[in-house]
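yo, GTP cyclohydrolase 1 is done. seq:
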Amino acid sequence: MTNSLSDRSATVSKLRPRLSHAGAPVDLAAAERAAADFLVALGIDVSSEATEDTPRRMAHAFAEMLTVPEFDMTTFPNDQDYDELVVVEGIEFRSLCEHHMLPFTGVAHVGYLPGERILGLSKLARLVAFFAARPQTQERLTKQIADELNRNLAPKGVGVVVMAEHACMSLRGARARNTHTVTSALYGDVRENPALRAEFLSLTKNARTNP
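structure:
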């Protein structure tokens, strides 16, 4: 045999990098106490029957929004030499604005031009959810998705378009309701090849205008 079991396992490991968020474990009890102090500081009574459990609910809600399971970026050989765009449109996500800790929600359109390997399609949605599960800016979120796909898949090109509505802009401050922010990240042939760039942006534009 030319490859030992350990050699094959190492190869599989390289082809299936595991994504996980590093950081301290969630302390729900401390979060609940902090939520209660926060609400009281804003003049909210948390002793009534209706609100006495609100700090616990707040702590669990934020913990849920900021937690996503780790996963493997499973790839497969591009045996058929597929050389057209692979695009998953309308991946819904929700995240928290890191400046106000208010939600922003929207959709991501993620595509790539395959090289030697292709990616399990569900992993594109998992990738969006993974990076959205942190206090974010939309600009960073868009680039992180594209960077990770580019790094772990080594495709010929990558395209990511994100469209979202931000509560920090619609519910406070400018109170600009029904506005959407659009960001994009294009790499490789999707950026450099005018025909591919136009094709990808046309596909995602159609998805944005015809939900």
